[in-house]
Give the backbone structure.
Amino acid sequence: MKAVIYARYSSDNQREESIEGQIRECTAFAEKNNITILRHYVDRAFSAKTDNRPEFQNMIKDSGKRLFDMIIVWKLDRFARNRYDSARYKTALKKNGVKVVSATEVISDGAEGIILESVLEGYAEYYSADLSEKVVRGMTENALKSKYNGGTRPIGYLIDSDQCFQLDPLTAPFVREAFQRYDEGATMTQIRDWLNEQGVKNTRGQKMTYNSVQHLLNNRRYIGEYTYRDIVVPNGIPTIVPQDLFDRVQEKLAKNKKAPARHKAEDDYLLPNCSAAIAEPTSAARAAPATRGMSTTTTSACQ
């Protein structure tokens, strides 16, 4: 009999060692039962609550080639933690002559095995739902204390050992000055260029972009407002930008958003692959003397 091994771990405190352990036990099971292993399908940091897993989908697709008769998993919850997905894909595999076998859970082929497998799959789904509820509960408690819940850390802040927001003495001054410059009439493009000259990086550790500046100027965390889902905590984290300055900037952002000419002038970020924009005179303009209001059409030099 020929088989493949499917191994998976989610992102909740599991590492590569988890994959190695799953493959080791599945391989031992195969050797004990004289099963030939053809290949491994491995999904790293993918939850089994969804079927949107690259190697899982490749395995289901490859089953149609009828090259293997069995999929060996460490436990059934590696295959799926959703009863609907489990039943749907097992049905598809059965049509291709492939069955799913657990290396560590003894499930007979008889009627009682159907009940046991259903219980195990139901427990896996329960465990996943219960874990999700506990995670949300924990993150809600963190939010009520204005603690960092993961995700992108805004420019200007550091996270201390207690998971609390603290001002970053190196970047917080640049955040405040960015607001001041916009309030005094600087454009987002000018602020972007200035921040890049100062060596300030965006939240991905890359050079600042127009979008980075736009997000920065709209971020209410800089007035100390902490948000998580439907929880809003005013003054929950250290303030970088005074409320009055923030409000003036929001008014100017709204006003400038309605000014097409200014907005278009700043929208150079929309043409990242263009080497230049070449202005070509219309036929009427070519025949007339050059004037300040000469009619032109613009041809993009995008590749």
Observations:
- The domain at 2-132 is CATH 3.40.50.1390 (Rossmann fold).
